[in-house]
């Protein structure tokens, strides 16, 4: 759900403002997620990259999660969940069988939780996990000094966040239908 809500209204800009301003400078912002990483990627032109970095910082560290915007994304979430290929589901179930908790948690929102996410839950998740010790800033074709200056301006909680460990159990997991 955090990936789906990326780019919505934040403390400094509306959803429309983020989209319009990034389009005006010829930049694109994408968000990907897996078991261990939520990645925000900004691609843009060198002469307007500093403007794009402002919106990247806002989208990645200043989320607001307005209740009506979260609700408006339910059709998109349902659509994306319906389009998960069986091969991806099998790998997700493989992790569930091997680890049960932690790394065994599914990457995808269970159907029973669709529509149950609220602003407070999402905000708590981001505040507790998006911390300085769990974050990295990387750049390709960007001046190192500019990248360091950008990283120092990010508004992240300090600390390591909650500790999680993945214990391997092995075993099997049976699911009737994965299509």
Order of helices and strands: HEEHHHHHH
End-to-end Cα distance: 21 Å
Tally of separate helices: 7
Which stretches of 5+ consecutive residues score pLDDT under 50? none
The mean pLDDT is 90
> What is the total tally of β strands?
2
List the helices and strands and how they pair.
Blueprint: H1 15-24, E1 28-33, E2 38-43, H2 49-61, H3 67-72, H4 74-82, H5 86-99, H6 119-129, H7 144-153
Antiparallel strand pairs: 1-2
Features:
179 residues; mainly alpha; Cytochrome Bc1 Complex, Chain A, domain 1; two-stranded antiparallel ribbon; 7 helices; Metalloenz_LuxS/M16; MPP/UQCRC_Complex; Peptidase M16 N-terminal domain-containing protein; Pept_M16_N
Describe the protein's architecture and organization.
This protein is mainly alpha-helical and 179 residues long. It has a single domain (15-153), classed as Metalloenzyme, LuxS/M16 peptidase-like (Cytochrome Bc1 Complex, Chain A, domain 1, 2-Layer Sandwich), CATH 3.30.830. It is built from seven helices and two strands. It has helices at residues 15-24, 49-61, 67-72, 74-82, 86-99, 119-129, 144-153, and strands at 28-33, 38-43. A two-stranded antiparallel sheet has the order 1-2. Strand 1 (28-33) and strand 2 (38-43) form a beta hairpin.
